[in-house]
Every structure is written in structure tokens, then in C-alpha cells.
Amino acid sequence: MELASYHALYAPYFRAGSQQSDSYHYLAGLLDPSIERKTAENIALARVGSERVRPLEYFLGESRWSDAPLLAEHRRQIGLTLGDAKGVLILDGSDCAKQGEHSVGVARQWCGEVGKTENCQAGVYLGYSSSKGYSLLDRRLYMPASWFTPEFAERRYQGRVPSELRFQTKNELAWSMLVEVVQANNLPARWVTMDEAFGRDTQLLDRIAHETSYCYFAEVPKDTLVWSEEPQLVLPVYAGRGRPPTQPRLAPDAPPPQTVAQLAAHLPAAAWQLHALKEGAKGLIVAHIACCRVVAVRDGLPGPHLWLVLRRSTTDPSELHYFLANAPPEVYRDELIAVCALRWPIETIFEQAKQLLGLNHYQTRTWLGWHHHMTFVILAFGFLARCQFLLKPDAPALTLPQIVTLLKAVLPQPDFDPQRALDLLRYQQARIARAKKSHYLAQRKRLVT
């Protein structure tokens, strides 16, 4: 079976035979559409029996196997199947609302999943998209600064947070994932795309421009300042005291920079052209696109010359998106528009990873558990992308959800005999009893104090 062959690519990275077995069952469980809530407990109950619940939970949340080589192999496999010289690396975040305060990294912060400030864990992800398909590549758990204070020392210990870990912003985490792709040099790509949260960070953009071979295509806020032409710079007049000035300044009559929203508002109608961006569920998705050259602002002075790409809704003219790209002046306009469309798959990736693969179903609270679960979600997504690629010649319209439906018919299901049914019933009764006892003890403690 294709899943067994796919798992065999990663099995050598697990030391013990039990880890190889557990890794296969967890991967198959994430892909199994008959398991609604894809936790380690539910996967074990559905695939290997109640006696394997604790071992599978230990494998996920506490076993110290390294997922770095798994992700490196996954990246290599994506390069072999979906790799394209014009491929797009996509930076984005995805959050998971959580109750309580003990899950590693949990804090009251903006949660995209619910669209408001909420108790949640925040993840930073790297995806890949090309004309051949799309997949996730990597992930990082964002640890809020509060988690590195002395007050959180016990929570860090309970969550198995590495003692050497230091605070990093989400953009620093994003950069660390890009660095690994650059160093591996086995995944062809031309572009790095991102939303406003990353695009507003000029330091990140400049690092991509100067330290990688990629071009960035970054969505930016509407108040981002640019010049439509390079303003004149002058050296201040030497006053005769101290060192002569060496840093140029804007000429007194130089025009001030304007926001990208102001620039868009003054573009002539002829600058906008209607383009089909991609095929949607209800037909072609079209938008008005305008492209022009601008000069970025860096510390109040002219910075790099960039492309400003504007995307305007055909149904609501006030819905405008602004993108800056450091592609060369001679780049074809059609390529800029194509990249504008290839950024969208990350939204589909998160939606499908949650609905089909249980990206947000995990119940583990530890640092290892979060990263291990996300690694398997990435591998499971890679399997779906691989199947779609292999079956594309015979079924060009095949979607990832349809592949999951096919898996329901071909995934081997364990025998469900009366004894196994009885074992499952006993396990569930014992679990309810333990939960009830824990609840009573907690209630008693609150009443006593």
C-alpha cells in the first residue's frame, strides 16, 4: 500500500521498533476519516486497542525522538514531487484556542482561530506551493515573553520546555525556518510570501533580500510609506565645527513619502486590469490588479526599489490588498500576478489540516508533544499531496478531501471482535471514574481552602 511505502521513508529515523510501529499508527490515525477527534487516545482506541493508549500518548508527548530529520526528509520529498523553480514559500501563523494555563506556550493573546484575544497557543508555519500542488513544510511554537519569567519556571519544567530556549518573536521564528530551507538547498523556490504580520517587518524583508536568493512578495498594511520616485538627497552644509557630515538627508524640497493607500487612490483607471487569479470552488476568482515601481522607506530615507502590487475586489472596490515585492524591474507582470494567487493555498492548507488531519485536535500539553503532533500533521499532509501528484495524470481534478475519502476504503481496519468491544467499554468506564475522582478532589480542595 502507498501509505506503508511512504512511512518507510521515515521509519529509519525512529530508533526502536516500537517507535516505528507507533509512528505508523499515529500517521494512519491522522489520515483515517473514521476517527473524528484525532487525539493520541482516540487513535490508539481505534487502531490498536485500549492497552496502547498510554504508550502512544508517551510516544507523542514524552518520547525524545528527534523530528528534525523527519522534517528534513519531508522537505526533500516535497522537492522531488512538487518542486518547481518558481515555487513559493509561504509564511503564516495559525492559532489554537486552549482552556487552562498549563499547555506549553498558552497565553491570552490574539487568536486567529476565533478572531479575538483569547487563551491560545500560537504557531508559526512554513508552507510550499507550486503549479504541482501545495503542502506544509515546517512549524514553530511561539512562546510569549511571559513564559520566560521566573513566575513560569514550574510551568516550563512541567511542559518539558528545553532549558536553553530563549524568547523569539514570531518573525524570528519564521526566519529560522527559512534559514533551514536555504541551508538544505534541496527544495527549489523563487519566492517567499507572507501576510501583513510578517510583511510589516522591514528587517525580515531585508534579510530575505540580502541573505537568500529568494524574492519576497509581502502583504503590507495600507499605511506603509513609499515614494513613487526616488527623492533627492543632499549632504548637510558643514558648519565648520566637528566632523564634516557624511550622512545624506532629504533635500528641503523633496516630497514626503505617501502611504500605499494614497498612491493606489491616485492611480489612473488604465492602471487597473482584470485578471483571473485561480480556480475556486464556484468558478474563477478574479480581481483588478495594478503594478507599479516604488521606492521603500528605510529610517526616513530612500530604501530599495520595489514592485507595489495592488489587488482590488471586483465586487467591493474598498477591499484592497497591498503587496511589496523586491523582484527585478524586468520581471514579467504575469509572474507577479501568479505569485499573488500562489500565496492563497496557505489558507486552504490550514483549513484542510484542521478538518482532515486534526491539526488542532491534540491534547498533549508538552513542548515535545506539540512539535511531534505538528510534525505528523505535516507528514500526513505530505502524503496527501504526494497521492494527488501521483494520481494527477489519471484524475487531474482530484482534491485532497477526495483522497481522504478514498483512504476510508483502503486503509486496513483492525478486527473489532466482542473481546475488543468489552475491553474498550471497560477502558471508557475506568476513564470516566478517574475523571470523576479527579473532579471531586479538585472540588474538595477548593472548598477546604
Offer a concise description of the structure.
The protein is of the alpha+beta class and 449 residues long.
Give the helix/strand layout.
Elements: H1 2-8, H2 17-31, H3 40-47, H4 53-61, H5 68-81, E1 88-97, E2 107-111, E3 116-130, E4 133-142, H6 153-158, H7 170-184, E5 191-194, H8 196-199, H9 202-211, E6 215-220, E7 225-227, E8 233-234, E9 249-250, E10 258-259, H10 260-265, E11 273-280, E12 283-298, E13 301-312, E14 320-325, H11 333-342, H12 345-357, H13 367-391, H14 400-410, H15 418-448
Parallel strand pairs: 1-5, 5-6
Antiparallel strand pairs: 1-3, 2-3, 3-4, 6-14, 7-10, 7-12, 8-9, 11-12, 12-13, 13-14
Q: Give me the count of strands.
A: 14
Oligomer: single chain
Report on the biggest sheet: 12 strands, mixed
Helix content range of the residues, please? 40-55%
Q: What global shape is seen? A: globular
**Uncertain ranges:** none
Total helical elements: 15
Our measurement of the CA-to-CA distance between the termini, rounded to an integer number of angstroms, reads: 58 Å
- The run of helices and strands is HHHHHEEEEHHEHHEEEEEHEEEEHHHHH
Q: Please indicate the percent range of residues in DSSP E strands (runs of 2 or more).
A: 15-25%
> What structural class results from the helix and strand content?
alpha+beta
Radius of gyration: 26 Å
Overall pLDDT, averaged?
Answer: 89
